[in-house]
Specification:
The chain is of the alpha/beta class. The protein contains 11 helices and 13 strands. The mean pLDDT is 92. One of its GO terms (molecular function) is lipid binding.
Amino acid sequence: MKKIILSADSTCDLSSDLLEKYKIHTLPLYINLDDKEYKDLVNITPDFIYDYYDKNKVLPKTAAPSIGDYLNHFEQLNNGAYDIIHVSIGSGISASYQNATLAANELDNVYVIDSKSLSTGSGALLVEAYEMINEGKSTDEIVERLKELREKLDVSFIIDSLTYLREGGRLSALQAFGANLLNIKPSIFVSSQKNGQMDVGNKYRGNINKVFIKFFKDKLEDNDEIDLRRIYLTHSGADEADIELAKNTISSLKNFEEIIVNKASCTISSHCGRNTFGIIFLKK
């Protein structure tokens, strides 16, 4: 049985410590800002994007790695010595999956999984894959199981301000103005049926640290279908006090074995802005 290497897009939104722990190799998406090209989390950070927008009112455009980028990435990982399982951001929101698949078709040992999700939704699948590798599962067994697990992902976010969605063209100026004026915070959930596209869920009013408490309660309190092994709390840049409050709120609602905190990548952050909080878990 061949050894297995795990690979992902930079949008998997796992911390550098977790990437090292679970032996995950990432390929960055491109961030294009004012005619300059950057690589996600390589030479640009979410805080740089926020500061740049505050000063210049310009947001970046994001782009998938090319077929050639993926081919080079896969070849550098092993030159055919191992199997590679690559988990991609959802095909409904990025060309990454398509480009990775076309590159994999040039090789014999690369298996590309459409996560049908985004952010740490992809990361959660990679953690499951790592555990299956340690259990001695074969590549085919892991690939099939990941396809089952992606349908059990629950990925949702609460957004503090609609400014970034408006500037990114995902919301009209009138809608954003009305929501911001009324201090409305929408929840966004990721649809696996739409291959990672997002839909609007419940709407809340108030400050973000009060709102995410209500949001977490709605998602977790009476939900008996949650896999309690772990939950991921992913934020796009928030005060430590708010992060701690979010963790404590989750702990008070469900007895998770692990609450894993991550900060979102540039690609994700550039679409949602500061103070976005997401929770990601698997359903039974």
